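Example: Outer-membrane lipoprotein LolB.
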Amino acid sequence: MPVLLKPCFKAANFTKNQSNMESKELSLKQFHLILLMFLLFLGGCAQRITPSDEQTQQNRPESYNNWRATGKLAFISPEERQSANFNWQYREQKQTLTLNTFIGTQVLKLEELDQYSTLTLEDKTYT
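Written out as structure tokens, the predicted fold is:
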């Protein structure tokens, strides 16, 4: 009868080694995926966006054709305190400044046109 050789490895160790190799392959794939995502992220951050001529023109103050500023003014002295809300706007070669009390009553209105200016104060208009 032929003599059978004994296997030189154990089945338990083989499956253990096989699972170790599979886990190493999996962790290597995860590492490559993480590395790829990191490099893509860095590449996206490194891009330099150059603004177009139109965007550059819009960021210059001399190119502002229409604008508006609103806020609150206060006059404080030892004798009295006064405050007013202001609305200052420039639209199509016309500039307007209005001052209102906190309840909305108009105190002053100043309009500047191309040729002249008008001031309205206490229901009287001055040109």
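The first strand starts at residue 66 and ends at 76.
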